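Q: Got a minute? One more chain.
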Amino acid sequence: MTAYLIPLIIIGGLTSAGVYLLLERHLTRMLLGLLLISNAVNLLILSAGGRSGNPPIRDRTSAGSGETTTADPLAQALILTAIVITMGVAAFVLALTYRSFRLNTAEEVTNDPEDTRVSQRSGNESADELERRFEPDRSRDTDLPDELDALPGYEGSR
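A: Always. Here it is, folded:
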């Protein structure tokens, strides 16, 4: 199997750009990074599938090509499946982005307070000391139905 240099460079560039975008804090950039990585994987599967050839149907040949080998249908099926899965994940991430924007009016992902608390914990502190130091702000209840509902004008069951 011969690997061509130009497709491998394109795959590497798409992958590196996708990873860079995935590490951003904005959800739309994360989505774009996910799509770039998906396209890079699709190109990788296509290049690993081998050379092109006749259609994988018995007694069929390509018009005017005179190829003697048959194309591998597995790579094409895997790419088609990967495209469908990627579009489903993209729709899900878009729905999460819309929901996050409706609730917070911001698209940026913030640090989780529990993760921050765990990362600041030194090995010799007890759980009670940590609870006293990092008391949650109970003055604002964020579980109200009007904040969780995406429909404008929804009043909930007040």
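A: The chain is about 60% helix and 0% strand.
Q: Perfect, thanks.
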